[in-house]
Amino acid sequence: MPPSPSEPYAYLAFDLGASSGRAMLGRFDGRRMEMEEVHRFSTPLIEEGERLYWDLEAVWADLEEGLRRAQAATPHLRSLSVDSWGVDYVPLDRAGKPVRRAHAYRDPRTDGMMDKADALVPAADLYTVTGIQFIALNTLYQILADQEYEPDLFAQTANRLLIADYFNYRFSERAAAEVSLASTTQLYDPRRNTWAVDLMEKFAIPPQSWPEIVPSATRLGPAITDDQSKIQNPKSKIDVVASCSHDTACAVAAVPAEEGTSWAYLSSGTWSLLGVELPAPVLTEAARQAGFTNEVGLGGTIRFLKNLTGLWVLQECEREWQAAGETFDYETLFREAEAAPPAEGFVDLNEARFGLRGEMPQKLAAYCREHNLAVPPTRGALVRLILESLAEKYRQTLRVLETLLGRHIDVLHIVGGGARNALLCQWTADACRCRVVAGPAEATALGNLLVQTQTMGDLPPAVSIRDVVRASSDLRVYE
C-alpha cells in the first residue's frame, strides 16, 4: 500500500564517514523523500603510538542515540540501515565478540604488505580474479599485517565484519557481508559473486573466517538494541536492512542520471571516486595498469571507478589552520580562493605523502619547491591550488576512462559534499570540458534511504530510485 501524504513512511539511514557520522531520517510520501538530520556525531580515532584504531563503542552509543531520536520524531519508522567506508573490519571470535579494536585504514602497519602479497600471487593474477585497485590500505593487506604483527589474535579470529556490516550485526544479531562492501576487500570474485576462496587459501586466510555474502537490499531481521528500555515503543518492529553497506554504492544508487545519456559519476568527499556503472567487470590488463577498480553496486551492477584523493588534503589544511588559531568558514576560504590568481601548475595529490595526517600546508609547499612551482603565498592561493589540482586529476582520469570504455562521457554527475563546492564544480567542468550536474550533496544518505524504501516494497509501481532522487533534489548544472 502506498504511503499516505499525512502519514508518510519513515526510514533511518546511518551514514558513517571517516570523520563524522549522522543519523538521517527519511520520510517518503510516494514521490519525494524528505530528509532530516536527527543526530550528528564524530567517528573518533584512538591513537596509540603509530597505531590508529576506530572507537567503535563510541560510534555504537551514537547509533543508539540516533535511533532514539528517530523514534521520538515519528511513530512510522519502518527500517534502518548503516553504511560506511570500505576495507576496514572488525575481527570476531567464536562468540561473536571483537578480538581487538578495528584498525583505521590510515594506520601505516600495511607498509610493505603489497610486496608480500605480490610474492605469493602476482599482481596481474590477483587483478584478474578480484578486479580491485592496488592501494596499501586494502583489506587484503590489512589481514596480511594481522598475520605478521598479531598472529595470536589472527588465530583467534573466527569471523570478520566490515564496519557497516558490523553495526548492522549489532542491530540485528545477523552476521552477513553485504555484497557492495564485500567487493572492496580484494578477496571477492565479481564474476562468480562469491568470496575468492582459492586466493584466500594462497594467502593462508581461512575462508570460513568470512560470513555469508548477501545481496544489496536484504532484510537482516528486526532491530535489537542493548537497552530497549531507553527506546520509545520498544515493541514496534523496525527492520534492519543491508541496503548498500558501502557508502559509495549508496551514493551511486542516488546519481540522478537520465536514461540515454553517456554519464559518469564523481562521488566527492574525503575521497574522490570517479567512474561509471557497468553490467559486468572490466578485468583487462589496461584497466589494471590504469588503476581502476571493480566494485559491486545495487542490483549487481559494477562500479568501475578509480579511487582518488579528494577533499582530505583541504580538510587537513583546515585542521592545521584551526590548530594555529585561525578562524574562517567555507565561504571565506572559497572567496579567497576565487580571488587568488590561477595556479601555474598542479600538485599530484595522490602521492603517498598527502595521504598521511599532519603538516599538510608544509607538504604542499615542499612539493611546489621540488617541482619548480610557485609556493602559494596566501591561504586563498593554497586552497585554489588544491581545488584546481583536483579538477586536473579528474580530467586526466576521465580521459583514461573514456579510452578504456571506447566512448565519450557527456555528463559528469558530482554527488556528495563536493557538490556544494561551486568552485570545484565549475573548475571541473572547465577542465573536463563536459557538463557537470552537481547534487544531491546528501547522495549517500539518500541512496541508503531509497534502497530501504525499495526493500520494504514501498516504491510505487514503475517508479525507480533515480526517479525519486530527481524529484527530491535541487540540482545545479555547470557548463
Write up what this structure looks like.
- This protein is α/β, with parallel strands linked by helices and 479 residues long.
- It has two domains: 9-242, Nucleotidyltransferase, domain 5, CATH 3.30.420.40; 257-438, Nucleotidyltransferase, domain 5.
- 37% of the residues lie in helices and 22% in strands.
- It is built from 17 helices and 21 strands.
- It has a seven-stranded mixed β-sheet with strand order 17-18-16-15-19-20-21, with helices on both faces.
- α2 (113-120) crosses α4 and α9 (247-253) packs across α16.
- The longest helix has 27 residues, at 379-405.
- Residues 228-235 have low confidence and may be disordered.
Percent in helix: 25-40%
Oligomer: single chain
Mean pLDDT score, rounded?
95
Count of discrete domains:
2
Which geometry do the CA atoms define?
globular
Based on DSSP secondary structure assignment, what is the total number of beta strands? 21
Short descriptors:
17 helices; seven-stranded mixed beta sheet; 479 residues; alpha/beta; six-stranded mixed beta sheet; 21 strands
Topology overview:
Layout: E1 9-16, E2 20-28, E3 33-42, E4 45-48, E5 51-54, H1 56-73, E6 77-83, E7 89-92, H2 113-120, H3 123-130, H4 139-149, H5 151-156, E8 159-162, H6 163-172, E9 177-178, H7 179-182, E10 188-189, E11 194-195, H8 197-202, E12 213-214, E13 218-222, E14 239-242, H9 247-253, E15 263-268, E16 271-278, H10 285-289, E17 293-296, E18 302-309, H11 312-323, H12 330-339, H13 360-370, H14 379-405, E19 411-415, H15 422-432, E20 435-438, H16 443-455, H17 465-472, E21 476-478
Parallel strand pairs: 1-6, 6-14, 9-12, 15-19, 19-20
Antiparallel strand pairs: 1-2, 2-3, 4-5, 7-8, 10-11, 13-14, 15-16, 16-18, 17-18, 20-21
Helix pairs in contact: 2-4, 9-16, 12-14, 14-15
